[in-house]
Amino acid sequence: MNSLKANGDMRSVQYDRFSRILSAAGVYAIIVFLFLIGIIINRNFLTITNLKNVLMACAQLGILCGGMGFITYIGKMVDMSSPITISMSGIVAISCLRFGLWQCILLGILASALIGVVNGIVVGKFNANPIIWTLAMNFLVSGLVRWIFSNKVIYPDTAAAAFPALAAEFSLIARTNWLGLPISLWIMLAVIIIGQFLLVKTSFGKQLKVIGVNPDVARYSGINVTKNVIIAYILAALGAGIAGIFITSMGKVGAYYNGDGYDFMAATAIVLGGMTLSGGRGNMAGVLGGVITVKLLSNIQTFLGISTFVQNIITGIIFILIVYLNSQSLRKLGRDNA
Questions:
Q1: Coil, strand, or helix at residue 154?
Q2: Is 62 within 8 Å of 192 (Cβ atoms)?
């Protein structure tokens, strides 16, 4: 940008500044716009019940995105195995209820983390295509889960029939409030804040940025790319695992389909929030804005009576449009690989 100033090309400088402002504040401007639309179309939009439902939905998706954002940041796009990772944590947790509430939660999250370890090793060490591999992982683990449980779902009260109190406590996890807000929302905020700190204030985050911009340069700089990629996938799996506990608790059922659709919703929220699929750009504050935007849009469409299938079409169109506009903007800023 300094060279542009020296050459007197202020038009390019102004465009650069506009792009940076749009990247930082654009998604929150969209949120304000959606709020206004919601208020106009239905008077029940601003009710405590509706806003609380939106926040609870944001919490589950936000926890997932807080982890998956690390994968996008290093240029590995998104984790397509997140649906089964979400489902796995809930299934394992319910299956282990007899060991105690906190023990079953920990075991469920650790089971999800194991998927992240495998993904990280295969993608980071063996340079597998991140989309193809994680998609294959999703199908593989999903098939194994359905085979092991004979294609049946499990319920807390039947899996822990001898411990009805534990089953009840598990079902209350997603319904527990603190200071008037769902505990899942507080955990989401903690995940986003910690994620933002890691990206901005630590050497780990700086290394991830270099990897996202150019992994070859990162290797030549002495950065252990394989290790960082593995850690990023573990963080993504941990986010999916924690989200899975809340999703399973809310539905009171452990099933292989619990995570269906969350991979695409997460990708949409992350890209909408300013992270680029090519890596090296964005932050968790923007990701949070993307999560709120996706859930507000879904809420408004529900008020309008739009079916789930049509909502998926609209979300898909928005995702394609945002990726296109984002890529065009980055190319004009000199990021031809975007």
A1: strand
A2: yes
- SS3 state of residue 256: coil
Q: How many C-beta atoms lie closer than 10 Å to residue 131's C-beta?
A: 15
Main-chain phi, psi angles of 314, to 5 degrees: -65, -45
CA–CA separation, 78 vs 338, rounded Å? 15
Going from the N-terminus, what domains does the chain have, and what CATH number goes with each? 49-292 (1.10.3470)
CA-closest candidate to residue 225, choices 242, 204, 246, 241: 204
CA-CA distance, 86 to 257, in Å (whole number)? 9
**Whether 79 contacts 119, CB under 8 Å:** yes
22-68 pLDDT, tens digit per residue, is: 455 578 888 998 999 999 998 899 998 899 889 989 999 999 999 99
Helices (H), ranges, the chain: 2-6, 10-41, 48-73, 82-95, 101-126, 130-148, 156-159, 164-172, 183-201, 203-213, 215-220, 225-251, 262-272, 284-303, 308-332
The 3-state DSSP class for residue 182 equals strand
> What is the reported pTM?
0.88
- Residues 6 or more apart whose Cβ sits within 8 Å of residue 282: 23, 69, 72, 73, 270, 273, 274, 275, 276
